[in-house]
Amino acid sequence: MSQTVDRALSILPLLAEGPADLGRVADRLGVHKSTALRLLRTLHEHGFVYRQSDQRYRLGARLIALAQEAMENLDVREIAHPHLVRLNEQCGHTVHLAVYEENEVLYIDKVESRYPVRMYSRIGKPVAITVAAVAKLLLADLPENERRAVVEKLDYPLYTARSTPHADGFLKELAKVREQGWATDLGGHEESINCVAAPIRGADGRVTAAMSVSAPNVVVTADELLTLLPLVRRTADAISGEYSGRTPVRHTDPVHHPEHRPEKDTV
Predict the structure, then answer these.
(1) Most-buried pick from 11, 106, 170, 239 (CB within 10 A)?
(2) Phi, psi for residue 234 in degrees, rounded to 5
(3) How far apart are CA 119 and CA 193, in angstroms?
(4) Is 50 helix (H, G, I), strand (E, B) or coil?
(5) How far apart are CA 41 and CA 216, in angstroms?
(6) Between the CA atoms of 101, 216, 80 and 257, what dihedral angle is there, to the nearest 10 degrees?
């Protein structure tokens, strides 16, 4: 029975490449045509494959509908949260998860810093879209025409001397972020706060969410925070793999890194 299931499932990625006739299916599986036909008929009865008028088979509508439903019901926050907690345990700093919805970038999860210095960000609150590292990643992944349209409608408040001042500058920054695959906010929103961020991608390769690590200068310098970028990117890749179904869930003990201690407590 397990061999039959294995053979039937092997047909699906073949048909994902395009319609195939009975002979091609049998050759790919290494079985007689009669065996391949039985498998195709069973899949056809369940709506997973469809027989065309030219006698070739393609993926069925029910399979596509199930895949779409599964993607819509995936909760990136639920999948990401254990990873965010482990990252927080490793570095000690504030960790955020954000998504782009209806022209806003919103925090949907947050793990607080272990240090006395805390950030005032809140789950459900929009971020400063023209400076936040997570926002840069989410906007950078938009199709070019949509990205330009969004950017040109934004206001550009000068939170600090490092804030992005206008649309042209922001478009250039987004192009850089899109090319390098990560983003920073080094004092662009608050002079004393720095942030590094990495994208979380779905099965189609598009950026579904973005995660970041943030810390104030009194805890670590911007250069020290940037040394965590490989760890942040590995965490984002692990979430992406689990969210997209490319990699199985693995539970590993966190690798503890040397902690950065604050020079003094602030409020």
Answers:
(1) 239
(2) -65, -40
(3) 9
(4) strand
(5) 62
(6) 160
What residue type is 109 in one-letter code? D
Residues 6+ apart with CB under 8 A from 183: 133, 134, 136, 137, 140, 177, 196, 197, 198, 210
Crossing angle of helices 2-16/33-45, nearest 10°? 80
Give tens-digit pLDDT for 108-159. 899 999 887 666 677 878 899 999 999 999 999 999 999 999 999 999 999 9
Tell me the C-alpha to C-alpha distance, in Å, between residue 67 and each of 63, 64, 242, 244: 6, 5, 16, 11
SS3 label, residue 143: coil
Amino acid identity of 17? E
**pTM to 2 decimals?**
0.68
The Cα–Cα gap between 205 and 111 comes to: 26
- Between helix 229-244 and helix 76-91 the angle, nearest 10°, is 160
**Buried b vs exposed e over 146-168: b needs ≥16 C-beta within 10 Å?**
ebeebbeebebeebeeebbeebe
DSSP of 212-236: EEEEETTTS-HHHHHTTHHHHHHHH
Rounded CA-CA distance 247/249 in Å is: 7
Residue 71 near residue 183 (C-beta atoms within 8 A): no
What are the phi and psi torsion angles at 152 (to 5°)? -70, -15
Per-residue burial over 88-114, b = 16 or more CB atoms within 10 Å of its CB, e = otherwise: bbbbbbbbbbbbbeeeebbbbbbbebe
With contact defined as beta carbons under 8 Å apart, do 112 and 94 qualify?
yes
